[in-house]
Design a protein that fits this description.
about 25% helix; 4 helices; eight-stranded mixed beta sheet
């Protein structure tokens, strides 16, 4: 498994993952803008045998990291890769100065919520009608970041991020 910063050459693979994971996928242009114009944005890819199988994005603002999206290719879901990617995002955010991380998750996405809770996230509120595709509410979750996020509870195996845009 290899983690690295996303670059413009990754966009086609990322857009493919977007289409698999989300009902309202981001466009290639949206990712291009994030990578070239958003100074707060940090995006990383997860590679297995030189193939991009997942990615995650966050905005780093002062000492907080806001996860914008995280997704793993459908064929790799349920195997712990989502947990691994989120752990790496948490480590990276801490390394870059963040001490807290937040995200939004669909209230119906119990699978992702379970993973986030196992990684130390706790619910802190709801954003009504947050998702534009169906006006579903979003659960706001926060986690305190630690020097090594590996100390969180071990992955139980069943919960895995299918794809979550926050």
């Amino acid at each position: 498994m290899n983690y690295r910063l996303m670059n413009l050459h990754d966009i086609d693979a990322i857009v493919d993952i977007e289409r698999e994971a989300f009902t309202a996928p981001w466009s290639a242009e949206a990712f291009r803008n994030e990578l070239t114009h958003n100074l707060f944005a940090k995006y990383m890819v997860m590679e297995l045998d030189e193939d991009v199988i997942g990615y995650g994005g966050m905005w780093l603002i002062i000492d907080e990291a806001h996860v914008t999206n995280i997704a793993v290719r459908a064929e790799y879901q349920g195997k712990g890769y989502g947990k691994s990617l989120l752990r790496e995002m948490m480590r990276t955010a801490y390394f870059l100065g963040a001490r807290r991380m937040t995200l939004e998750v669909r209230v119906s996405n119990e699978r992702a919520q379970s993973l986030y809770r196992k990684m130390g996230f706790v619910p802190s509120g709801v954003r009504p009608a947050y998702y534009s595709d169906n006006l579903e509410d979003a659960l706001i979750m926060w986690a305190e970041l630690e020097p090594d996020s590996d100390d969180h509870a071990e992955f139980a195996g069943a919960a895995e991020v299918e794809g979550e845009r926050t």
